[in-house]
Amino acid sequence: MPTITGELRRYFRDRTWTIRPPRDVQELYLKVNRTRALLSQELGREPTVGDVADRLGSTPEAVVDALAAGDAHLPVSLDCPHGDDRSEGSALIDLVADPRGDLDGGEDAIALWQLGAELTDREREVVRLRFQEDLIQREIGERIGCSQMHVSRILGGALARLHATADRLDVAFD
Which of 25, 49, 64, 96 has its CA 20 to 30 A from that of 109? Predict the structure, then answer.
């Protein structure tokens, strides 16, 4: 009987973790859970990490690591609701940052690149300085070596041509 029980425990210890932390962390996680349940009854409140660490003769850092590793034992679905008001319909996936978020503007970037091909190098530089670097016309004129009035004419002509080309190509920006 002890052999079979031991084999079952080993199997569940080694096979049921989605992400497998080191064995000592797994075992500490199980001890932490048992200790938390006992201390909750004894203290009449949720025990702190310090309470659990003192009872187990461990460090608070080791207890925190074990609790963090315990999240890998039975991970929560990203579709499950979160927050105090669970009827709102927001899920954990809403909290996850999208590393591909910059792809949303990909079509706009391609369209801008195609439209930019309609401009001369000087016009493209003026538009870039105005809208990307957010410079005023006087500052742009100082950079490219012309008057503010000339920058105004370049910018006005470039924007008019971009607008006409966008209409012709049926390009719409969000």
Answer: 96
